[in-house]
Target: DELLA protein RGL1-like
Amino acid sequence: MDQVSIPAIDFSVFQAGHNHLQECVRDELVNNGVIDPLFELDSEDLDSLYSVFDLKYQENTSDKHVQLSEDQQQNISGYCTQSDDSSSNTDFPLQPVQIQSTFEASNRIQPQVPRLGNFHGEKTNPISSASLELLNNCGRLFKKSSEENLSNVHINEAHVGNIPKLSTEEILRVAGERYIQYSTQRVDGLSMFIHPYASALSGLSIEQTRDMELVHLLLAAAEEVDQQQFHLASQSIARCLWKASVTGNPIQRLCFYFGEALQERIDRETGRSPSFERKLRVLSTLALGTTPEALTCHTEIPFSQVMQFAGVQAIIENVKGATKIHLVDFNIRTGIQCTGLMQALAEQCDRPIELLKITAIGHQEKEKIEETGKRLQNFANSLNLPFSFDIVFMSDMKDLRAESVNVKADETVAVYCNTVLRTMICRPEYMDNTIRVIRGLRPSVVAVCEVEANHNSPSFLNRFVEALFFYGVLFDCFEDCMDRDNLVRKRIEVFHIGEGIRNMVAAEGAERFTRNMKLDVWRAYFARFGMVEMELSESSWYQANLILKQFSQGSSCNVQNDGKALLVGWKGTAIESVSIWKFL
Model:
């Protein structure tokens, strides 16, 4: 029997085709008036963008802060009688000889800022054992960590100099540990943060001290919401939003969106939920498909391309030797992920491809799927690759059947599921039907790319802390990969990340559609349908690492194995997974 060589993606050739297709997408967006030639918004557009979510902000001497409602300002007034900048007031000269005595005095003297007391019969409780356990264990998923930075914060607490630079995840972890400490000891930890020597006493910089205070306020608010102490929670949220900012550093942005989400949860619980019809209309037009946001994420953030290259390489290896290949894509979007497969198959000389058929499964934005098909057809023509494109469009995914996909007997089928199954977690019957349909297609390989996070817990507080750490890593990534004033970044944060946080924190039941599950949960689920996991090859690992080298911040992106699968993460925290499956 003839030996068949396994085709691989030639990165240089692929990159040229990839860029060409991306330019085609961009040109169409420009011609259709979706974006301007530079992906920019004018000031009027940006004001309109922020007004959709009532994100009104004003210029401050140091950063931009949100304008609070009169009720929120009244909530703050009783607790911020001292200057908002007291934790960072540079008018106090740092005299080392006074630090120790000041620290001792701070342990004896009643805190200058009042603690949140009892209101309307509400009583405060220490942090729950469940949230304590989660805060202790949440975060690091890889062996590689920054324990040295974290230990420096604790060991060098009396030293002002040599302050380590902490990532967003590390700040959240330290803040969470101290929140647990203060809560279990019934100590007002906030007084530590607002002390004029707070940064010196804690071994943190002034900005890090401010960030710790923000996280402390946010965790307190979440705990109060969980205990249905809504009056207390609203006050904590108001204080948090006073210091948070949609244009600040990652912690400030993170706390703003989570603070807004907590307030919406309170509104829902108390029957004051506002109408979101106008927001949802805007969101429906900004789905992360053929949009500036999608292209920016693809070109600026490493995760997308790493997952695509590894997944596509696995598909290539599992259809080797076939001359008629049928790729069924459940979330095709711009189709950029297909170009690697097309390029590799076009260069297959020992057994030329007779036909590459791509079928896109979708239930919305049919016109955009059709545009994607035309671009892929043009790209195939440039490669002299026999190609056809088909669409299976369903008004409701529960009506999808295997017979809906036109599969010929002589075709080798591969299935590509990129972050699509997560959208069905809140509707298990839809997901079950989708897996049964995939099984009915008799694919030789199924590539699954999903978000690696546990955002499906029935416990609000557990889900809140998991989401806080996860989105904190995303904001940290955006900070390193894009400028703060990047207007497309702002759109991503407002319409995609912000809305995801809002839905995950504020909604429950069927309304909470933003859900994710970790790889171990997916493994257990797939096993019910007779799916067997296959190991990613060395070529897939090579492609993933090759991609990282193309990004200036690629060294912060981690690629690590989890059993037979691949995890893609940022500074040690997993973000997405790639796994390969077949049916028994």
In short: Residues 291 and 386 are 28 Å apart (CA to CA). Residues 32-126, 137-160, 281-288 have pLDDT under 50 and may be disordered.
